[in-house]
Amino acid sequence: MRLSIAIAATALLVGSVFAASDARADLKEILDKKTIRIGTQMDNPPFGYLDAQGKPTGFDIELGQMIGKALGVKVEVEQIIGANRIPYLLTNKIDLVVSGMGSTPERAVQVMFTSPYAALYLGVYGPKDKTVKGPETLGSLKVSSVKGTTQDLTLTAMAPTASIVRYDDDATSRTSFLSGQTDLWATLNTLAMDISKRNPDKQIELKFKLRNSPAHMAMRQGDFALLQWLNTYIFFIRGNGELQRLHRTWLNDDMGGLEAM
Do domains 2-119+214-251 and 122-212 have the same CATH topology? Predict the structure, then answer.
């Protein structure tokens, strides 16, 4: 009886995911509307942030504009946060997430991911005076993270008893760490690098690495034509040097190795 209930519950979950995706906007509809709606976080430099004039800028913003130009459509940028990236896709508020997003098996139940377009990793960071060498040495130190993100899930699995303080977005998580409300910060290496440069007095360093977390674009389940086009586009800009240019411009680093999915 319990097995039957579990199977029924799983079928209901999968069915609801695909029902939500029935309202999708696959490639043909995007081309017909001549508009693609792209969700990007604006608290995630150098991928997405607001410049001094309040204009969206960064790696993901430029990549999104390049995608629109290649498709011959207008780009509408929608500001998102980590917690609503997938819900915005499933409720048809956006067509595509371009936001330094890492892929996980859990997320792949709900959305489809492109091949990676940026090589990144997640880690736990803190000041030099905090002696931490791995998840087993966290002790009672508080770690700031964004709830539901890859860093949150990975750290929770590595250190189930750790004191993780979870926030809704990167900006709040970062502020908590910088203000001393938390001792450490679980985040993306590029975010940590940016904050370390702007706050040299904090003496921020990598304490331990959580996992590699290359950036992928995400779309609704069933948007296969869009997925195929985007994978082709990633392959194309890898070959013509444009993806390398984006890495050097925004990440101050070479593209490195990116394995296709």
Answer: yes
